[in-house]
Design goal:
Elements: H1 8-14, E1 29-30, E2 39-45, E3 50-55, E4 59-60, H2 63-72, E5 79-87, E6 92-99, H3 106-115, E7 121-129, E8 132-140, E9 144-151, E10 155-162, H4 163-178, E11 181-182
Parallel strand pairs: 1-7
Antiparallel strand pairs: 2-3, 3-11, 4-5, 5-6, 6-10, 7-8, 8-9, 9-10
């Protein structure tokens, strides 16, 4: 079967199915164009049974900085930061966190958080990413573009890119998202 090549902005905006009924298990399957030359650090999360590659030149932060980022997290966030990468040239960031379940499902907490921000345009889509249920949020304002991928209802992969770097980083972002696979 021929791989379906979808440009990320088209996927996120034109194919948005926010407000549709159904579960991620019912969602369509998508594949992303992965250009290996645009991939960098191998981010293997054994406990979460997940592998992904950061975009090229996005470096994992050291344990010292990761510890400080964890300490600075808002207690109300109900997340445990597992890994983070930074792209110094564009000030872009990738973070991977586990969301703790409470009375409100993670997808509803993310939706509420994003929709509550003034001046933020938000679109939502659900699909299967390399066999895993994924709910993806695209949040944009005049300064930043943020992709939030919620995998398996609790694992959050967050890409935050300044708007002025978005076009230059787009193919690397698509490749990184397409590299996300479950570990067997």
């Amino acid at each position: 079967m021929k791989t379906l090549r979808i440009l990320l902005p088209f996927l996120l905006i034109a194919c948005s199915n926010a407000g549709q009924e159904g579960t991620p298990g019912d969602a369509r399957k998508l594949s992303f164009q992965v250009e290996e030359s645009l991939l960098g650090a191998d981010l293997r999360l054994e406990e979460q049974q997940l592998l992904l590659f950061a975009p090229l030149d996005w470096s994992p932060v050291g344990e010292d900085l990761l510890t400080r980022l964890r300490a600075a997290q808002d207690e109300g966030a109900k997340m445990n930061l597992l890994q983070a990468c930074f792209h110094p040239a564009s000030s872009s960031m990738l973070s991977i966190s586990v969301m703790h379940h409470g009375d409100v499902p993670a997808v509803e907490r993310l939706r509420s958080d994003l929709e509550g921000r003034e001046g933020l345009k938000v679109s939502e889509d659900s699909y299967r990413l390399n066999g895993m249920p994924c709910t993806q949020f695209l949040a944009e304002d005049s300064l930043l573009v943020q992709f939030r991928l919620l995998l398996r209802d609790s694992l959050l992969v967050d890409y935050l890119v300044p708007r002025n770097a978005y076009t230059a980083q787009l193919k690397a972002l698509e490749s990184s998202i397409g590299s996300i696979v479950p570990l067997q």
